[in-house]
Write a structure and sequence with these properties.
This protein has 109 residues and is an alpha+beta fold. The protein has three helices and four strands. It has a single domain (22-108), classed as Translation Initiation Factor IF3. The termini are far apart.
Length: 109
């Protein structure tokens, strides 16, 4: 067997392996604690669309100024997002505080 044929077969095997692997992106949605109901519904639609395309979604809740005292309201917003998307998503990372932001990661089912 010559080296050229061997190299060709190795390349073919790598291409087949590459076809079968799954890739995803991490999409980010930003919300605030006082985001309105309709705006939240629009963002939920975006989240659902991302999850249906098999992408993970990072939901970032940003506190500005004195809003930092509304941490319980922020947790409620993130919990509402999690329960609204329970049919298409699973919570990969629970809401976690990082400075003035709270982060939650959703993965497709």
């Amino acid at each position: 067997m010559d080296y050229g044929r061997y190299k060709y077969e190795q390349d073919k095997k790598q291409q087949e392996a590459k076809k079968k692997q799954s890739t995803f992106q991490l999409k980010e949605i930003k919300v605030r604690p006082k985001t309105g109901d309709h705006d939240l519904e629009v963002k939920l639609g975006h989240i659902r669309r991302f999850l249906e395309k098999k992408d993970k979604v990072k939901v970032t809740l940003i506190f500005r100024g004195r809003e930092i005292t509304l941490t319980d309201l922020g947790i409620e917003v993130l919990e509402k997002i999690a329960e609204e998307t329970v049919d298409v998503a699973v919570v990969e990372q629970k809401p976690k505080f990082e400075g003035r932001t709270m982060v939650m990661i959703l993965a497709p089912r």
